[in-house]
Design a protein that fits this description.
266 residues, alpha/beta, Metallo-beta-lactamase, Chain A, four-stranded mixed β-sheet, 7 helices, 13 strands, 23% strand, globular
Length: 266
């Protein structure tokens, strides 16, 4: 998620959060960006520095065999959820995906980290801290713009990654934007396309933080072609039946698009 929403707009508007007096359907129509251009494409994102959140997650939760999840309420983005994952490796270790800081005892309870994977530049979070402390390599997309520090490795589209993850390009937020598919566990780690509200439903990340909101929607539609059930989000808790939640989100958008307006006289 772009570095600091609150600095980009005043008042800040967070993914999955309504403005004052705004109901879910109005919010979703605003966020979906169905065929329209964002008012501020990527400018809001570029205006914000990418900094490590100050919050520390207290614990990690095992959400499926070999997959752990933890989250913070990130003050840099107005208190919205920033979430991270660890995925087991065959050698008894794990890879950290877009890690925010985890309490030392909780981190020690995980398998030993072998690598850090970042699906987009804007999710650097605690990556560089953990590279120094843990001595592990940081991986970043090969076409990502310069990060705060130089990554150890670069990965490309459709490249197998540590932990058995597969890098899939999911453009919309920006072109160098990826999600990670774990076929062996039928799990998908989805970056900045979607956010969770904690109620089993999904929303689109607000379009003003995306270079191409229409491409974001197309990327979300293509997710349904993948073989997964567990949907892990960078901004929200995991969903056990992720495809069903995506279908509900897309269906709500279609219903609004075809609903008669007052001007129709119906």
């Amino acid at each position: 998620m772009p570095g600091a929403y609150a600095a980009a707009q005043a008042p800040a508007r967070m993914p999955g959060c309504a403005e004052a007096g705004e109901d879910r359907e109005v919010r979703e129509e605003r966020e979906a960006g169905e065929g329209g251009e964002a008012r501020e494409t990527g400018e809001a994102r570029e205006a914000c520095a990418v900094t490590e959140p100050v919050e520390v997650a207290e614990r990690a939760e095992l959400v499926a065999e070999g997959i752990w999840y933890w989250q913070i309420r990130n003050a840099a983005i107005g208190g919205a959820i920033s979430s991270s994952h660890a995925v087991a490796t065959d050698d008894g270790g794990c890879v950290l995906v877009d890690p925010v800081r985890l309490a030392d005892e909780a981190l020690a309870a995980l398998r030993p980290p072998r690598a850090i994977l970042l699906d987009t530049k804007t999710h650097q979070r605690a990556a560089w801290r953990y590279r120094r402390e843990l001595g592990v390599e940081v991986w970043l997309p090969e076409d990502a713009p310069p990060a705060d520090e130089e990554p150890d490795r670069r990965f490309s589209e459709d490249e197998p990654l540590p932990g058995g993850l597969l890098a899939l390009r999911t453009p919309g937020p920006e072109w160098p934007h990826y999600s990670f598919l774990l076929e062996s566990r039928r799990a998908l780690i989805c970056s900045d396309l979607l956010a969770g509200e904690g109620d089993g439903e999904l929303v689109f990340v607000p379009p003003e933080f995306h270079d191409d909101p229409a491409a974001t929607r197309r990327s979300v539609e293509r997710l349904l072609d993948l073989d997964f059930e567990l949907l892990c989000l960078d901004h929200g808790p995991p969903l056990r039946d992720g495809k069903a939640a995506i279908r509900r989100l897309l269906a709500r958008g279609r219903r609004r698009r075809h609903a008669p307006s007052r001007a129709d006289g119906r």
